[in-house]
Amino acid sequence: MAKIMTTTAGNIVGDNQNSLSAGSRGPLLMQDYQLLEKLAHQNRERVPERVVHAKGSAAFGTLTINHDISKYTKAKVLQKGEQTRMFLRFSTVAGERGAADAERDVRGFAMKFYTKEGNWDLVGNNTPVFFIRDPQKFPDFIHTQKRHPRTNLRSNTAAWDFWSLSPESLHQVTILMSDRGLPVGYRNINGYGSHTYSLINDKGERTWVKFHFKTKQGIKNYTNAQASEVVGKCRESSQRDLYESIEKGDFPKWDFQIQVMSDEQAKNCPFNPFDLTKVWPHADYPMIDVGVMELNENPANYFAQVEQASFSPSNVVPGISWSPDKMLQARIFSYADAHRYRVGTHYEMLPINKPIVEVNTYHMDGSMNFAEPKSTDAYYEPNSFGGAVEDKSYVEPPFGVNGDGYRYDHREGNDDFSQPRALFMLMSDSQKAQLFSNIADAMDGVPDEIRNRQIALFEQVHIEYANGVRKALGK
Ligand code: NDP
């Protein structure tokens, strides 16, 4: 027998088809609370969309560790043989919630691991680097990717104006405009933690680390022309591909690898290893196999699980920690803050965000606090009433800092050209041709002054790069 419908207070609904009216043709009565509740709830069905990474798709899966990296980390989630349930949300960055999937854009690759020691969130992208290295520039950069305040159109001029005035963006711009800037679907991209993090072993020794997830489905990309055709037929091409492949039991997998760097190596590294616009060359810092990640379960409810999923690089577990990367430092604040605003103060109580371990904080009250109230006198800390206490054995080992407090020019002495050059040199002739033509497409309508400023930067990467773009622009 079907269950009986109720209001949110559990009051039984007698009629869900006909509103309460004064006479059959008459106006409605204020006391029809069921109707008022339905309309009021409908008005509140949407939460604000994410300012960035608004359009996404996600799935549950498993992280399995097959190799012993205990000399680097004591984290339980990274010990050989460990299997951890996880949730991975892919996304585009600039488009709104209704944007098409097959657009040239970076893809978000945000992972939440529900570990035995609390949640570990690794909130990465499908690119190993980013456009900027100082978080001061993040809101400005994002404004250039969103809509122009007057025209309400996306602005190529704003994007290239910002990039051409920010040479640190060259590496990421080259990746975005390359064949890999427009993936066929989420199964066909690599994931990168991008920032430098640290691993801490049971002796309290810290090693710097980069996290990589290499797709086992192969990298697959669309050309701009192919993508236009796809978008004309289906705006949810990546969502459909991911959902349908998991539904039919074809579970996508990624090889999980790390690169490591000792503190001594970091001090002697010719570039700043904590700079988000730089990779660590594989030849110097070889990839180390760790395990496999598999996605094997579709979400049951898009809103409850995908839309409310809230990832933050502030969530780390013992044995995994941060680095001095300035972008990472800012994200530790800004991600959790975005969720408190967008989803609500207690967003981590929601089932999709809730850790599998017991949570014991002394935070109090706040809107939508749905924790069961405990009858206790221990509502502050320290207390004499048996409340939760700190455990000093979990304090991280110290890390060295030096220098005077100052607004250091992050461009001074920084080589923004060698790494994009290394990438350019890896490209085949056909990949270079695609790069030039993708840039020319993306520069449509951009004033010559801005184009020329950007081409001068390409020239410092490689003369062939600048000439190729000039030719594609018909110059
Ligand atoms: P390697 O030759 O050892 O590695 C090159 C890497 O570039 C591979 O990981 C390859 O991925 C990746 N790659 C190839 N084409 C593209 C593209 N269009 N966009 C993004 N990545 C691509 O060289 P190095 O480690 O010395 O790095 C050289 C350059 O390669 C770097 O400057 C950087 O631009 C790029 N790169 C480096 C990475 C790193 O962590 N070292 C990671 C990703 C890119 P795959 O193996 O999947 O084909």
Q: What is the CA-CA span between the terminal residues?
A: 74 Å
Percent of sequence in beta strands: 15-25%
Q: How much helix, percentage-wise, in residues?
A: 25-40%
Architecture (CATH level 2) name of the domain at 20-166 and 181-357: Beta Barrel
Instruction: Pick out the low-confidence regions.
Output: none
pLDDT averaged residue by residue: 97
* Global Rg: 25 Å
Instruction: Report the count of strand segments.
Output: 10
Alpha-beta classification = alpha+beta
Name the CATH class of the domain at 20-166 and 181-357.
Mainly Beta
Q: Note the run of SSEs as H and E.
A: HEEEEHHHEEEHHEHEHEHHHHH
Going by CATH, the homologous superfamily of the domain at 20-166 and 181-357 would be Catalase core domain
Shape: globular
Ligands present: NADPH dihydro-nicotinamide-adenine-dinucleotide phosphate
In short:
This protein is an alpha+beta fold and 475 residues long. 28% of the residues lie in helices and 16% in strands.
Task: Provide an overview of this structure.
- This protein has 475 residues and is of the alpha+beta class.
- Helix content is 28%, strand content 16%.
- The chain has a domain at 20-166 and 181-357: Catalase core domain (Catalase HpII,  Chain A, domain 1), CATH 2.40.180.10.
- The chain has 13 helices and ten strands.
- Strands 1, 2, 3, 4, 5, 6, 7, 8, 9 and 10 form a ten-stranded antiparallel β-sheet that branches.
- The structure holds NADPH dihydro-nicotinamide-adenine-dinucleotide phosphate.
- NADPH dihydro-nicotinamide-adenine-dinucleotide phosphate is lined by residues 128, 175, 178-180, 190, 214, 219, 279-283, 419, 422-423, 426.
